[in-house]
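Subject: design request, 337 residues
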């Protein structure tokens, strides 16, 4: 009762996991790992939810523990990275295969983890103690890793996205007190063909929590902690100012998922909005979440601040636990006709 019509509650994960790594294969939702103990521990479990939504199935566990930013989908395999190891999951057989070990200086806790269509590109780290500008790329066809050129900046908060031609990384370099060494969020773009980086032009988005999302025709949506947004046009190397995201400010990191038409679903402290790339506007989305902070939900409440977002062509799955891991839930949002 009271659940918005666009949302559907699905079977919960078999185990409580905050922000598991997850992909949509075209016929099933696959999750790996995830956090418990306030982010103090990652796990290896692999769970599969078929398209008929009958219930989650347990598959073979991953060879190592994984977090939320550690998986990509190639079109055939889920590639998983963690603890300086790599593995591939085949959804057709439900089994894992170890991949050649990454180079010894490969990123730990990667900042960006994308599939280019030919290569798996991993760059940077979210660790504030060991921040660096290095990255690696893996070619499944040859089974070979390579080092990529060092980036012209260091980031530990934010995310990276593949535009179709480049890896764009965006965010800030924060210290242990959340202070940034730049007054705004900053970014750079990497071209794997030339193995070169270029800096993005400046944009007035806060460095405290910012990120990017792929949208239609190679454009990139930038958004921040203060609910501001801008659209980056790679071909013109410029930012376009947008209206504010229609959510209320809160103490959460924004998350995103891109649907098949290039629209972007944004999730922020139990609130949601969708960016329309044609009109360049945001639509507010009513959500089923009724409590937003780290406490067990009372009877009748639905609790989840954070979670993993996975988009299909027409829907978005929201999987995982509340911010402090009290509950386990799976929801699916589908745009009303």
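Subject: RE: design request

Done. Sequence follows.
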């Amino acid at each position: 009762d009271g659940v918005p019509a666009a949302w559907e509650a699905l079977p919960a994960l078999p185990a409580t996991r905050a922000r598991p790594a997850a992909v949509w294969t075209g016929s099933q939702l696959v999750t790996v790992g995830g956090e418990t103990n306030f982010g103090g521990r990652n796990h290896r479990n692999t769970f599969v939810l078929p398209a008929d939504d009958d219930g989650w199935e347990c598959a073979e566990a991953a060879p190592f523990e994984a977090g939320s930013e550690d998986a990509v989908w190639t079109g055939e395999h889920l590639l998983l990275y963690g603890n300086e190891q790599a593995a591939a999951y085949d959804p057709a057989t439900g089994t894992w295969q170890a991949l050649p070990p990454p180079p010894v200086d490969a990123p730990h806790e990667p900042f960006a983890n994308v599939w280019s269509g030919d290569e798996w590109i991993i760059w940077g780290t979210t660790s504030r103690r060991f921040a660096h500008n290095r990255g690696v790329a893996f070619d499944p066809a040859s089974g070979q890793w390579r080092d990529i050129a060092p980036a012209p900046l260091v980031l530990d908060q934010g995310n990276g996205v593949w535009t179709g031609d480049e890896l764009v990384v965006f965010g800030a370099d924060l210290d242990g007190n959340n202070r940034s060494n730049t007054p705004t969020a900053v970014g750079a773009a990497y071209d794997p063909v030339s193995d070169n980086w270029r800096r993005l032009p400046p944009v007035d988005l806060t460095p405290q929590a910012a990120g990017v999302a792929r949208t239609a025709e190679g454009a990139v949506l930038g958004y921040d902690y203060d609910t501001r947004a801008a659209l980056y046009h790679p071909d013109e190397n410029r930012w376009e100012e947008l209206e504010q995201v229609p959510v209320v400010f809160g103490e959460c990191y924004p998350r995103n998922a891109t649907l098949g038409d290039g629209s972007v679903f944004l999730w922020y402290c139990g609130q949601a909005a969708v960016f329309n790339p044609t009109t360049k506007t945001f639509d507010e989305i009513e959500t089923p979440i009724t409590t937003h902070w780290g406490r067990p939900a009372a009877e009748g409440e639905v609790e989840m601040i954070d979670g993993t977002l996975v988009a299909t062509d027409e829907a978005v799955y929201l999987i995982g636990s509340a911010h402090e891991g009290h509950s386990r839930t799976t929801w699916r949002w589908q745009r009303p006709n």
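The chain has no helices and 30 strands.
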